[in-house]
Amino acid sequence: MANKKQLMALALSGLIGTVQAGEKEELLKLRNTTTNLIKQLVKQGVITDKAANEMIKQAEVEAGQQVAEAKAAGVKEAVPADEVRVAYVPDFVKDEIRQQVRSELREEVVGDVMQKAKNEQWGLPNALPEWTRRFKLSGDIRLRSQHEMMAKENIANSYIDWQAVNERGGLNAAGVDQFLNTTTDRQHFRERLRLGIDATITDGMKAGVRLATGNQRDPVSTNQSLGFTGQKYDFTVDRAYLQYDAIDDNKFKWLTLSGGRIKNPWYTGGGEFTGGSELVWDTDLSFEGFAGTVRHRLGGSDSLMANDDHTHSVFATAGAFPLQESALSSDKWLFGGQVGVDWGFVNQDNLKAALAYFDYVNVEAKQNTSVLGTCDLNTRGNTASRPEFMQGGNTLASICREGTGALASNPGMVGLASDYNIVNANVSYEMTLFAPYHLRLSGDYAKNVGFNKAAVSRMLNGTVVEGKTNAWQFRADFGWPRAEVAGHWNVFAAYKYVERDAVLDAFTDSDFHLGGTNSKGWFIGGNYGLMKNVWLTGRWLSADIITGPPLGIDVLQIDVNTQF
To answer: Which stretches in the chain have pLDDT values below 50?
Structure first.
């Protein structure tokens, strides 16, 4: 590092005045090249932005000292008023600087030129039609081994699978499938395939389609279990959307509008380390509806990376999503809004925080009071109020009874007993103190302010249910931000606590406690790059029930991930 500073000092000393025009231009080019080299070292995480600034300042000081010493040692001569005398830089020193800069930049420059040649198809005029360059194909395949281990304290047939009961039309109709597995360990292999196509329509406007494996009824998982010999996999449309991005003269993306079946528009505490917290939203969940995000950049920055899009910015997102349409009942909707700040520091640390509010409309159960409360599939407001999908944990109320007339007894269908209006706060801080390794700390908190104890009690025929409406998670990540390169790695650990009615159980994490709410525990794991675009992931999730009969579940997942 000291050698680099000395070389830079000699280069910068040539900028104090003018000698011959050709030599001045050469030294100016050298100065710019050296400064750009330092910026590249900052981008690669070799040195911090602060260290780079100090390096340049120190080099300038040393250059000034060398110029002063050279002038003091020289012979004073009469100098015309329009000329400035400077120290002479020997040719061998300039050659040494040129060789060092060339050797350090050669690989990067060659790579940039090759990439540009590939993108612009040099030497291949009219080789492909223009429209083919408007399409981008991407995808990923993940192979997973999943082990599910049940705690010894678990009690058989202690929890009902209400999703199966609703689909079959009652407890008796569901038969042996009415109970969740709570005592038998499982080991199974799973696969996930996703294929995406993005098409540029015009400047700022694109269309996107993503196909994915997985059960069509399950919105929070695109996994396909292996072991169904002779049956073909389901491969369905997971996303289909239009997106418009507006960019200003400084290449800052200040507006994003999207509609259709879109990716999650909310900030969930994620970054390069992870797709975000799954406290409220599972990472595989796609949203149907419309969303828009507005961003505003706050002033400039004295950082070398001042042109980064999100150095200092605030953002606001709003969305409206139909959850379930019905001609026999009120439509179910989700409305949401979020505001946040993205703040980068001179030393490359980053703070990001957001506050959101999600309002579910018409999701509560509508009980059938006619025909002695039995399940009449033609009765308005009856079956349409049941949830399309449940993972388990939320407080439920009976919609109707199984059987007819006086024989109606057991619940035939159930729905949500509470309304859900969720306040959600996310914050993360990423530190580059250990560059190139990063340390990232994040927190996520959610509370259902829509829970009404009296209203829920009426839905349960007078049974009093205390509000369990808080959820939170703390997580730490350390290592390379991404592990898609051979030898890169990162590790993570987190603790999670999700009470019964804190969030909608249908959309939360599908792996922790095998999905749903009313669970607490921790998980650890890591990623390791095997080769370019191929990495290994391991996770251990240990969770227990918060209220109810004992139900502890440990899950071990080992993944081989690829992307293309």
So the answer is: 1-21, 75-78, 301-310, 372, 381
**Tens digits of residue pLDDT in 97-137:** 667 666 666 666 666 767 776 666 665 555 667 777 889 99
The answer to whether 321 and 266 are in contact (CB under 8 A) is no
- Cβ 258 vs Cβ 243: under 8 Å: yes
Which residue bears the tokens 């419309």? 290
Which residues are CB-neighbours of 74 under 8 A, at least 6 positions away? Answer: 85
Taking phi over 0 as left and psi of -120 to 50 as alpha, with beta for the rest, 45 belongs to left
Q: For helices 91-120 and 21-43, what crossing angle results, to 10°?
A: 60
- Alpha carbon distance 110, 34 (integer Å): 17
List, for residues 322-351, the tens digit of each pLDDT value: 998 877 677 899 999 999 999 998 888 999
Those residues whose C-beta lies under 8 Å from the C-beta of residue 43, and which sit 6 or more positions away, are: 305
Q: Which whole-number Å values give the CA distances from 508 to 114, 265, 356, 358, in the listed order? A: 44, 15, 16, 14
Strand partners, 545: 519
- For 403, counting Cβ atoms within 10 Å of its Cβ (0-12 exposed, 13-18 middle, 19+ buried), the class is middle
Contact between 90 and 96 under an 8 Å Cβ cutoff? The reply is no
Centre a 10 Å sphere on the Cβ of residue 434 and count the other Cβ atoms it contains: 10
Residue 241 structure tokens: 């959307």
DSSP assignment of 117-139: HHHHTTT-TTSS-GGGGGEEEEE
The reported pTM is: 0.77
Q: Are 349 and 430 in contact (CB under 8 A)?
A: yes
Scored b (16 or more CB within 10 A) or e, 83-111 reads: eebbbebeeeebeebeeebeebbeeeeee
In angstroms, rounded to a whole number, what is the distance separating the alpha carbons of residues 414 and 375? Answer: 11
Beta-bridged to residue 427, according to DSSP, are 353, 443
The pLDDT tens digits of the residues spanning 8-32 come to 444 444 444 444 445 556 666 667 7
Token pair 């159930």 is found at 414
| C-alpha torsion 266→271→272→278, nearest 10 | -70
Contact 254, 294 (CB under 8 A): yes
Q: Residues 187-199: pLDDT tens digits?
A: 999 999 999 999 9
How far is CA 351 from its chain centroid?
15
Q: How far apart are CA 541 and CA 60, in angstroms?
A: 54
**Angstrom distance (rounded) from CA 532 to CA 564:** 10
Q: Are strands 350-361 and 332-344 parallel, antiparallel or unpaired?
A: antiparallel
What is the helix, strand, coil percentage profile of the chain, to 5? 25, 35, 40
Q: Rounded to an integer, what distance in angstroms lies between the CA atom of residue 158 and that of residue 553?
A: 14
| Per-residue tokens: 413 | 């269908």
Query: What does pLDDT average to over the chain?
Result: 83
Say whether the peptide bond before residue 436 is cis (omega within 30 degrees of 0). yes
